[in-house]
Amino acid sequence: MNSRKAFHLDQFQQFHQWLITQPGFDSSDNANEAQQKLLANVEQLVKGGFADDDHLYQGQQLVADILLYHNHLAHHVNRDLLWYFGGDCLHYMPDDEIDRYQQLDEAWDEVSNTDGVSLNYQEVRARAFGLN
């Protein structure tokens, strides 16, 4: 798994870890059907480890559903996941944010096409976003 995919899987796993501590998503029996379905879908994607070629589509649908139907959870979905999954998720990103992620992708493509360079997505991301 490349470091870009690993970074986003980690972000998604962190969301999952947070989600299972929330009322209705924890191990108590007070979850409604929508919460149970959401949790099952999140867990399926986490357990799959983004190994399935269909993970981008599944993630896109799942994150879009969270933003649309479970908007009280939206602020816990890392913005990087919106860009990573793309599609309908991009409707929830302002243009200037999309521009920054496009610049990040260009920087990542440039580094990933350079021979002998150790690829670390987090480092490229930190430089592109001025976080270092």
Search tags:
mainly alpha, 132 residues, 61% helix
How would the global form be characterised? Answer: elongated
Largest sheet descriptor: none
Rg calculated over all Cα atoms: 16 Å
The quaternary organization reads as single chain
Distance between the termini: 25 Å
Q: How many helical elements?
A: 6
What's the SSE pattern? HHHHHH
In terms of structural class, how would the helical and strand content be classed? Answer: mainly alpha
% residues in beta strands: under 5%
Low-confidence stretches: none
What does this structure look like?
With 132 residues, the protein is mainly α. It contains six helices and no strands. α5 crosses α6.
Quick structural overview:
61% of the residues lie in helices and 0% in strands. With 132 residues, it is mainly α.
How is the topology of this model organized?
Blueprint lengths: L2 H17 L13 H16 L6 H15 L9 H7 L9 H18 L8 H8 L4
Helix pairs in contact: 1-2, 2-3, 3-4, 5-6
